[in-house]
Amino acid sequence: MVLADPALVGVLGLRMGDNALILGQRLSEWCGHAPVLEEDIATANIALDLIGQASNWLKLAGEVEGGGRSADDLAFLRDAREFTNVLLVEQPDPDFAHTLMRQYLFDSWHAEMLDRLVDSTEARIAEVAAKSAKEAAYHRRRSADLIVRLGDGSEESHARMQAALDALYPFAGELDQPDDCDKALAAAAIAPDLGELAGEVASARTIVFGRAGLSVPTDVPVRSGGKSGLHSEALGYLLAEMQILQRSHPGAKW
Amino acid sequence: MVSKAMQALQCPDIDTVWEWLDAIPDPEIPAVSLVEMGIVRDAQWDCDLLRVVLTPTYSGCPATSVIRLDVENTLRERGIEHIEIKTRLRPAWTTDWISEAGRQKLRAYGIAPPAGAASCAGMMAVGSIDCPRCGSCEVERISEFGSTPCKAHYRCTACLEPFDYFKPI
Questions:
Q1: Are B96 and B60 in contact (CB under 8 A)?
Q2: Which residues touch B166 (CB under 8 Å, ≥6 apart)?
Q3: Do B59 and A56 count as a contact with CB atoms less than 8 A apart?
Q4: What chain B residue is nearest to A46 in terms of C-alpha separation?
Q5: Nearest residue of B to residue A142, measured between CA atoms
Q6: Following DSSP, what letter does each residue of B12-71 receive, concatenated?
Q7: Hey, which residues 139-158 in chain B have their CB within 8 Å of chain A?
Q8: Which residues are registered as beta bridge partners of B143?
Q9: Which residue of B lies nearest to A21 if distances are taken between CA atoms?
């Protein structure tokens, strides 16, 4: 089914918002627990940026929907099946290497995507993207820097980064795979062509992984489904924790 | 009964309103005012309605709602009854909007102000950062993120003091 432009804007807002929200929530789980103080602070700060961006995107999605749902309603009162984030961002953190690798795989796409969305024909999309793009550029610089330092670090750090890349790389492909909505968004110049974007992102990643001494897995299957609401079980646990307050005490405010 | 036109005549002139706004401290960095930070983008009278436009610094800045409240409370305390506060996202806030006075106050407060302009392409090409304590340009970055998302954590290799650097954005 091809949606009309306004509904497409809502889909894009929801997807960008859900990616930022779920990754922001994942990152905030490290608050007070990260391996070193500076990285703990950086991780919490990036989580804050992402949750702020999610708030802007979800507000837009709610306005487009026209049913009176606020950003908070969309964040706290939807079930896993209604979330449209890619599987990558909901993946859990067996160690900090996975956190950093997930972050770089996402940041390297996210910063490029936002740069293109700044030129969207839809003013409300361009507005939120312009605000987020500069923040994402800093996220990408930090995660790329850490991929190189740890990939090209000790034997232990290298092995952990390579294991994280092997585990998470199959999930990165979902960002690049356009579905019918993505194609219609690109045709209306509301969003970029995801295939073209993927080329740019891949070249930048090749340089970073090369400097890090990490081998990019080849011929891996792409794990996808998130955009259409088919998630891994990890999302259920994340939402249970994130939503418990509003679920237990509906409408609670402070 | 006072007519609308009469009320408009009694409205304080806009320069005075800007002075009041310029006295509101940034909740995160109280040494600098909201006007010096470039967060207050516009203030205009529309008859007896004062329209104020704010542009938040970072998407996730927790101070954003406090800032809105501070502006409204300050203006109400000054006797302004009809206030409309709008949030504008685009053009996105940039450190280029921090005034010269604001930059000097940041430095005096111990935060190195953003070096150079923050046009998107050149944002990352960091210019010369001086230690806000001893003025040395021999500094090194410890972490991309400091005490808040808008700052990075640096160390002066001359006086050995750590300091926050306000990132150009």
A1: no
A2: B95, B98, B106, B111, B112, B113, B114, B150, B151
A3: yes
A4: B149
A5: B144
A6: PPHHHHHHHHTTSBPSSSTTSBTTTTT-EEEEEEETTEEEEEE--SSTT-TTHHHHHHHH
A7: 142-149, 153
A8: B153
A9: B60
Instruction: Flag if B60 and A49 touch (Cβ within 8 Å).
Output: yes
- Closest to A92 (Cα-Cα) out of A26, A157, A167, A174: A26
Beta strands in A5-44 (DSSP E): none
Residue B104: CB atoms within 10 A of its CB come to: 13
- Convert the pLDDT of each residue in A173-212 to its tens digit: 999 999 999 999 999 999 999 999 999 999 999 999 999 9
B143 chain-A contacts, CB cut-off 8 A: 38-39, 41-42
Token readout for B64 is 């954003």
Q: In chain B, which residues have their Cβ closer than 8 Å to the Cβ of A39? A: 143
- What pLDDT, in 10s, does the model give residues B22-42? 999 999 899 999 999 999 999
A46–B149: do the CB atoms touch at under 8 Å?
A: yes
Cβ-Cβ contacts under 8 Å, B57 against chain A:
none
Q: At what angle do helices A5-28 and A96-117 cross, to 10 degrees?
A: 150
Instruction: Using CA coordinates, name the residue in chain B closest to A111.
Output: B120
Whole-number Å distance between alpha carbons of A114 and A125: 10
Q: Shortest Cα distance from B167 to chain A (angstroms)?
A: 9
Write the pLDDT tens digit of every residue in A191-202.
Answer: 999 999 999 999
Q: Is the pLDDT of residue B121 over 60?
A: no
Most confident residue range from A43-57, B127-141, B144-158: A43-57
For residue B8, pLDDT over 60 is answered with no
CA distance to partner chain A, nearest, from residue B124 (Å): 8
**N-terminal to C-terminal alpha carbon distance within chain A:** 41
Q: What's the pTM value of the predicted model, to 2 decimals?
A: 0.91
The token duo for B124 is: 């990352």
CA B25 to chain centre: 9
User: Phi then psi for B37, rounded to 5 degrees?
Assistant: -75, -10
Which residues in A lie closer than 8 A to residue B146 (C-beta atoms)? Answer: 41
Indicate the pLDDT class of residue A152, thresholds 50, 70 and 90.
very high
